[in-house]
Amino acid sequence: MIVFFENKVVLITGASRGIGRAVALAFAREGAQLVLAARSAPRLDQVETEARTLGSQVLSVPTDVTSESDVAALVEAATRRFGRIDVLVNNAGIGKVGEIESEEFPDKVHQTLQASLFGMISVTRHVLPVFRQQGSGAIVNMSSVMGRKAFSRFGSYAIVMHAVSAFSDSLRQEVKGGGIGVSVIYPALTATDLLRDAEADEMPPPFRHMTPLTPEGVARAVVSAVRHGKRRVVLPRMANMLLLGEAFSPRIGDFIASALAQRPVTTFLGMSRGQTYHETLASRRST
Ligand SMILES: NC(=O)c1ccc[n+]([C@@H]2O[C@H](COP(=O)([O-])OP(=O)(O)OC[C@H]3O[C@@H](n4cnc5c(N)ncnc54)[C@H](OP(=O)(O)O)[C@@H]3O)[C@@H](O)[C@H]2O)c1
Q1: Which residues surround ligand 1 with Cβ inside 6 Å?
Q2: 219: helix, coil or strand?
Q3: For residue 93, what is the domain's CATH number?
Q4: Among residues 96, 60, 56, which one has the least CA distance to residue 78?
Q5: Are the C-beta atoms of residues 136 and 180 closer than 8 Å to each other?
Q6: Which of 8, 92, 145, 178 is close enough to 13 for a disulfide, judged by CB 3.0 to 4.6 Å?
Q7: Is cis: bond before 106, omega within 30 of 0?
Q8: Is residue 88 part of a domain?
Q9: pLDDT tens per residue, the chain (287 residues)?
Q10: What sequence ranges are listed for the domain Ketoreductase (predicted)?
Q11: Distance 219 CA to ligand 1 centre (A)
């Protein structure tokens, strides 16, 4: 059997839990060697152990992507250990819920920009010289459906996810011809700890009844995006209806966003097939 990612070196930020952990394990199953980055060393150790069990060689580097020196040390350690980097998955990030008129809103925008956008820019700029020298590489940037259509109460996150989308769009065109591919993943609500600090009734209205995606499902999409050189992946595909409506007219986009806040609508569209986000987190905690 030809294993596409056999011995390829995949660097994943935000690999200590959630989508990043699932991406790491998905690439480990494909035979890749891994460089795992996040701030929490103990949680990175756990993911490293899981990936090694799957047969992967793993280097974990505790890293805060908002620190230039941490990011420089991460890329240096990766190339020293493996001699190359084939895939960069820019996944580290945070998300905060709250209205634009709330006192904390500017701070939330600032914090999210630092972790989710400037971190991504920094890691990308440190990895690009390695890709340029190799004449090859693949970059996967994690955005969100919010990176193409914002919901109320999620402005700080949506601002940054739109910026991730624009950054990726510019980057893809700038590296064209250099053997470097850029994919952007736009998942809808996913069952991770990203929004665990928000109460159920504080959530953006369309999320209240929705059944979240699984991190493993998003991870499969990441692997497939690299394998097939996809520029854009929206998850679930049904979310394209929202984006199409929004592209046609913001009135239609807003109408679809309001409709998604109604349980009968999400049920009809197959988006309320199981537990809600908070029910999923609660049942995970109780097992
Ligand atoms: N969950 C969703 O609904 C959803 C939907 C669409 C897109 N996304 C995107 O998916 C990505 C992963 O999020 P998730 O849902 O898996 O959330 P998560 O479970 O909260 O994981 C976030 C990851 O990012 C790391 N991280 C945060 N700040 C960091 C920093 N300054 N430096 C290094 N690592 C940092 C965290 O590790 P440490 O705390 O150990 O640093 C953790 O590994 C994010 O970019 C998010 O915007 C999530």
Answers
A1: 13-14, 16-20, 38-40, 43, 63-66, 91-95, 115-116, 119, 142, 144, 187, 189-190, 192-194
A2: helix
A3: 3.40.50.720
A4: 60
A5: yes
A6: 92
A7: no
A8: yes
A9: 457 899 999 999 999 999 999 999 999 999 999 999 999 999 999 999 999 999 999 999 999 999 999 999 999 999 999 999 999 999 999 999 999 999 999 999 999 999 999 999 999 999 999 999 999 999 999 999 999 999 999 999 999 999 999 999 999 999 999 999 999 999 999 999 999 999 998 999 899 999 999 999 999 999 999 999 999 999 999 899 999 999 999 999 999 999 999 999 998 888 888 899 999 999 988 77
A10: 8-192
A11: 13
157 is an active site residue? yes
Residue 209 lies in a domain: yes
Q: Which of 82, 154, 157, 167 is catalytic?
A: 157
**Count of structural domains within the chain:** 1
Asked, for residue 13, whether it belongs to a domain, the answer is yes
Question: Taking a C-beta distance cutoff of 8 angstroms, is the pair 154, 97 a contact?
Answer: yes
Please give the Cα distance from 187 to 194 (Å, whole number): 13
Q: Which helix (H) or strand (E) holds 130?
A: helix 119-134
Domain span holding position 51: 9-286
Residue 2 in any domain: the answer is no
